């Protein structure tokens, strides 16, 4: 024990208490510290890169486009809805002007549990009784007729849904 330590912090442990205890000093201690920092950093990076997610939810992003891969005007504010056939989980994502969406289950940004899902696309509502005009075929508003299905895997997921625009009605 150095005398400067004893002056600053008191007597410290007695020589008898530390007899037989080996400590790392100097270069060995520095090497050990660097190894510990590098190992911890590598471990944390591997968890991040491997997509390890302790919440059980995984990132799901995607896009809703027409048959030519173009965003659909008027779809902004509509919702993509995932529902497991057994009813165990459902998730939702709001469609942006460019057709993109990000799904969540309990709170925005949390992701979706892995599994197979039926998908529907609900048009936005201006108020509880007034829906926006349909811009895509109405079959996409029901799980049983949309024909859209996905499998969310325990990793970052991306889905693109190509849907049919609503056919223009001819005047009589």
Structure in a nutshell:
By secondary structure, the protein is of the alpha+beta class.
Structure, described:
The protein is an alpha+beta fold and 172 residues long. It has 2 domains: 3-49; 60-162, Immunoglobulin-like (Sandwich), CATH 2.60.40. 22% of the residues lie in helices and 25% in strands. The chain has 4 helices and 9 strands, in the order H-H-H-E-E-E-E-E-E-E-H-E-E. It has helices spanning 3-9, 15-18, 27-49, 143-146; strands at 60-65, 79-83, 90-94, 100-102, 115-122, 125-127, 130-131, 148-152, 157-162. The strands form 3 sheets. Strands 3-2-5-8 form a 4-stranded antiparallel sheet. A 3-stranded mixed sheet has the order 4-1-9, with no helix packed on it. The protein is elongated, with a radius of gyration of 29 Å. The N and C termini lie far apart (100 Å).
């Amino acid at each position: 024990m150095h005398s400067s330590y004893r002056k600053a912090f008191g007597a410290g442990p007695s020589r008898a208490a530390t007899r037989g205890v080996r400590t790392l000093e100097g270069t060995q201690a520095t090497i050990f510290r660097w190894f510990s920092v590098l190992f911890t950093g590598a471990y944390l990076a591997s968890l991040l890169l491997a997509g390890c997610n302790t919440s059980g939810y995984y990132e799901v992003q995607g896009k809703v486009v027409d048959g030519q891969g173009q965003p659909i005007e008027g779809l902004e504010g509509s919702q993509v809805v995932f529902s497991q056939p057994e009813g165990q989980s459902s998730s939702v994502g709001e469609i942006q002007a460019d057709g993109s969406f990000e799904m969540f289950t309990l709170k925005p940004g949390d992701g979706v549990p892995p599994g197979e899902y039926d998908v529907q696309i609900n048009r936005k509502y201006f108020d509880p009784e007034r829906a926006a005009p349909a811009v895509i075929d109405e079959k996409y508003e029901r799980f049983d007729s949309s024909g859209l299905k996905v499998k969310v895997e325990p990793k970052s997921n991306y889905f693109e849904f190509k849907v049919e625009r609503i056919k223009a009605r001819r005047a009589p």
